[in-house]
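Now for one record:
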Amino acid sequence: MPRRGAGGGRLDILYNNVGGGFFRQGEGSSIQEMGLAFWEQTIGNNLRSTFLCSKLAVPHLTQQGGGVIINVAADYRVRQLGTVAYGAAKNGIIGFTQNLARELWPQNIRAHCICPGLIRMPLPDDPIRPHVEGGLTRRGAPEDIAFAALYLASDEASWLTGVILNVGGGNEVLAFDRQ
């Protein structure tokens, strides 16, 4: 869909980047040590907030003839390294995105999910540029996620919906071989 200039009160892209619950501090992170409050907070921070923001954006996107919703979960390795609550929430975001793409397809609203691997540091304030030093053996950079999001939100990806994009340097094929 063509993008009109900035401003004008339009909502073209919703980027749901939420988190919390990867680590459990204090009483422990195992399911036996995890309290219901931590479980509910983790599900709320990750899955419920993704649902609520999407729910509020859909009427605006529908009214203007379409748009893009990009949700952020975590790749396989990161989901497995986190707590059970974190893994459940991030897996939930993936399933939510797939069903959302199917549901919103007739309204020309595309829904995608980016699943980052381990990321090294915050995004710099400077213009983003590809981070190429170290190839696939390096830890991920915020720029890697930003470029994936830019592509999925762009007109070049206008015939894609329901994409679950792992941006983890090959974690999905290497499993736990990495240190």
Q: What stands out?
A: The chain is about 40% helix and 10% strand. The mean pLDDT is 87. The CA atoms of residues 83 and 166 lie 20 Å apart. The chain has one domain: 13-174.
